[in-house]
């Protein structure tokens, strides 16, 4: 069998999106040189002639989706550790018992490697609050649970653990040997349109996977038993009609209990209004947004559009929770990296929601809350008003032009409160502007920022003013760090050890209370804080610190942190009082998380001064 290297398989996986990808993008993704990427592509085409099309201007591309899926699906290298774990789970669930030695031989791995993989699978099931585990007795592997639970296990693993893929349904086809996902999808679209049921693309993917698992399990002789079924006749009617359509189109036969399974599935996707429930959820939304304002200093309370969208989301979430139909989010990792503060607020919201519904939320569901907050923050920014005084020799004659020219600078609404001359410069203190625009050179006003206009407020001036307003909106984060809270060259075995060490250092300086470590570990259970690029930023769900500080630890060797390599740890103590220093801190982290070379450089520093200069992008004096 022709075998690609693990890196070559990752390149092929990127080509599943059927779009051109530049060698620069691939080199950044895989952290290797452009030349290495070109050599890998040459090697792929030697194994599979013509598979990868190369363009000097556009990059690389493949239109042979079927071959890509086949190569990726058949390879043991596809790192698919999650890919292999899904197949291990799937095969164990396909029979009542499995001899571990025969199974290991079939997988071309040692029984000890298989045992480690089973341990990993069981840990993930535990983290996701499943009660079922893969058991071993007399060298036989088995899982004791009913068919409904088995399907939930497979769905969870497929949608939440095997999640390094694009949004397109074709990525899942290699997981199903006897079911055509495209056919199920088309049948479902026609059916849903007929009944005027509108669902998002991601919900359609979720529905398609649920149905595919039902069909494949039925074909294998694993029909659903007696299950608790939704009583609403509307959902039962939908299920009966849809099941008849599947049988008619694809010549599959199902037992009557599958109607109940499908009725529960429809109940998790299709909303029916309940006024009592909506009233309770409105209270939950308002209470949570009040808490966010107190804890984070961001006021979402006036955004009625956000409240409406959160209400609809929670009604849908309640349905999904009751019928085990959670959503996945293929953009989850990008959201976590690019919007860490908003994702953190979403974790706080999720904590309230989990308590209300008595459930466990996956990171995928939490990231959908972040999307709602992202939209709201953009709307809030558009209402962001800044007061400006203009220092000009032209007097009031330029007022109309200046006011119109800078009325809006991107999301900032500019209010020109007055134009003054040099003779009136002392009056600026009574006017209390956010910024002074000066047409005079070398003007300094104590306590008030001044921008010197270069070219009569041309586009370059406008962009410079915008950059300055952004800087003024946040404060330098250097105050958050202290030299005796910086530790380089340390060795720890796991994330719990690092968290304990840094919490003890913060407690010694009276920056956090005694239970701070437990609060952080609780946060890690909800959503781990390893964001990629060698970084983790552990902190509690709520702002429970005594002072705003960040303890830093740079490890000699990286450790595994929620399946990610971590070498640099920022453990944050966040006090309840609002602090704009953290806005600068998180903004710098966001930039760092998207700049691998800078991140790698930071992970190798040995001194506090060196760390501060790289992190702050400027010379730093102790």
Explain this structure:
It is a single chain. With 622 residues, this protein is an alpha/beta fold. It has six domains: 69 residues, Orthogonal Bundle (Arc Repressor Mutant, subunit A); 84 residues, Winged helix-like DNA-binding domain superfamily/Winged helix DNA-binding domain (Arc Repressor Mutant, subunit A); 99 residues, PTS-regulatory domain, PRD, CATH 1.10.1790; 108 residues, PTS-regulatory domain, PRD (Orthogonal Bundle), CATH 1.10.1790; 89 residues, Rossmann fold (3-Layer(aba) Sandwich); 140 residues, 3-Layer(aba) Sandwich (Mannitol-specific EII, Chain A). It has 25 helices and 15 strands. The strands form four sheets. It has a five-stranded mixed beta sheet. A five-stranded mixed beta sheet has the order 11-14-15-13-12. Strands 3-5-4 form a three-stranded antiparallel beta sheet. Strand 1 and strand 2 form a beta hairpin. Helix 9 packs across helix 11 and helix 13 crosses helix 16.
Task: Give keywords.
repeat; Arc Repressor Mutant, subunit A; alpha/beta; five-stranded mixed beta sheet; BglG_antiterminators; PTS-regulatory domain, PRD; 52% helix; 12% strand; Transcription antiterminator; 622 residues; 6 domains
Number of helices: 25
As for the number of domains, it is 6
Question: What is the CATH homologous superfamily assignment of the largest domain?
Answer: Mannitol-specific EII, Chain A
What structural class should be given to the helix and strand makeup? Answer: alpha/beta
Largest beta sheet: what is the strand line-up? 7-8-6-9-10
Strand content: 5-15%
Contiguous uncertain segments of 5+ residues: 76-80, 164-170
Report the count of strand segments.
15
**Coarse morphology:** globular
Q: What name does the CATH topology of the largest domain carry?
A: Mannitol-specific EII, Chain A
Percent in helix: 40-55%
Tell me about the largest β-sheet: 5 strands, mixed
Label the CATH architecture of the largest domain. 3-Layer(aba) Sandwich
Oligomeric organization of the protein chains = single chain
Query: Taking Cα atoms only, what radius of gyration do you get, to the nearest Å?
Result: 28 Å
InterPro entries: BglG_antiterminators, DeoR_HTH, HTH_Mga_DNA-bd_dom, Mga_HTH, PRD, PRD_sf, PTrfase/Anion_transptr, PTS_EIIA_type-2_dom
GO molecular function, one term: DNA-binding transcription factor activity
Domain HTH deoR-type: 4-61
Keywords: Activator, DNA-binding, Repeat, Transcription, Transcription regulation
């Amino acid at each position: 069998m022709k075998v690609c290297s693990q890196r070559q398989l990752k390149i092929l996986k990127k080509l599943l999106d059927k779009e051109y990808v530049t060698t620069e993008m691939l080199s950044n993704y895989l952290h290797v040189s452009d030349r290495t990427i070109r050599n890998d592509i040459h090697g792929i085409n030697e194994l599979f002639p013509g598979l990868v099309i190369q363009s000097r201007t556009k990059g690389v591309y493949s239109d042979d989706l079927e071959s890509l899926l086949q190569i990726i699906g058949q390879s043991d290298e596809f790192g698919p550790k999650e890919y292999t774990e899904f197949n291990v789970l799937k095969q164990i669930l396909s029979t009542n018992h499995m001899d571990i030695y025969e199974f290991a031989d079939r997988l071309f791995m040692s029984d000890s490697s298989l045992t480690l993989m089973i341990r990993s699978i069981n840990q993930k099931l535990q983290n996701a609050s499943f009660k079922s585990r893969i058991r071993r007795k007399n060298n036989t592997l088995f899982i004791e649970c009913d068919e409904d639970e088995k399907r939930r296990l497979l769905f969870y693993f497929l949608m939440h653990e095997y999640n390094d893929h694009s949004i397109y349904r074709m990525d899942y086809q290699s997981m199903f040997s006897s079911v055509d996902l495209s056919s199920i999808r088309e049948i479902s679209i026609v059916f849903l349109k007929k009944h005027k049921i509108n669902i998002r693309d991601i919900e359609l993917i979720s529905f398609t996977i649920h149905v595919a698992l039902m069909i494949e399990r039925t074909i294998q002789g694993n029909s659903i038993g007696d299950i608790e079924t939704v009583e609403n006749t509307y959902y039962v009617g939908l299920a009966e009609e849809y099941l008849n359509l599947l049988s008619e189109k694809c010549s599959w036969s199902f037992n009557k209990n599958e109607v109940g399974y499908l009725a529960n599935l429809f109940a998790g996707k299709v909303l029916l209004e309940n006024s009592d429930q909506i009233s309770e959820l409105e209270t939950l939304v308002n209470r949570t947004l009040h808490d966010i304002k107190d804890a984070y200093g961001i006021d979402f309370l006036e955004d009625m559009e956000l409240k409406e969208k959160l209400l609809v989301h929670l009604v849908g979430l309640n349905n999904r929770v009751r019928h085990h139909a959670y959503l996945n989010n293929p953009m989850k990792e990008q959201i976590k990296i690019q919007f860490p503060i908003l994702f953190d607020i979403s974790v706080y919201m999720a904590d309230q929601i989990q308590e209300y519904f008595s459930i466990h939320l996956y990171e995928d569901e939490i990231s959908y809350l972040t999307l709602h907050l992202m939209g709201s923050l953009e709307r809030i920014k558009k209402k962001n008003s800044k007061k400006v005084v203009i220092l000009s020799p032209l007097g009031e004659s330029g007022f109309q032009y200046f006011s119109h020219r800078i009325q809006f600078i991107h999301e900032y609404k500019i209010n020109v409160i007055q134009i003054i001359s040099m003779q009136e410069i002392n009056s600026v203190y009574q006017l209390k502007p956010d910024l002074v625009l000066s047409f005079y050179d070398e003007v300094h006003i104590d306590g008030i920022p001044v921008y010197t206009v270069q070219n009569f407020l041309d586009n370059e001036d406008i962009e410079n003013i915008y950059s300055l307003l952004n800087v003024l909106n946040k404060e330098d984060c250097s105050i958050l760090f202290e030299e005796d809270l910086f530790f380089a060259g340390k060795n720890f075995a796991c994330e719990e050890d690092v968290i304990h060490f840094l919490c003890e250092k913060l407690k010694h300086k009276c920056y956090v209370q005694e239970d701070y470590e437990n609060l952080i570990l609780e946060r890690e259970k909800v959503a781990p804080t390893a964001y990629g690029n060698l970084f983790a930023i552990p902190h509690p769900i709520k702002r429970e610190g005594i002072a705003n500080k960040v303890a830093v630890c740079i490890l000699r060797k990286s450790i595994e942190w929620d399946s990610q390599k971590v070498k640099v740890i920022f453990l944050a103590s966040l006090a309840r009082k609002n602090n704009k220093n953290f806005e600068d801190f998180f903004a710098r982290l966001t930039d760092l998380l998207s700049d691998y070379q800078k991140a790698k450089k930071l992970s190798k520093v040995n001194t506090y001064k060196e760390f501060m200069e790289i992190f702050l992008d400027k010379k730093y004096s102790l």
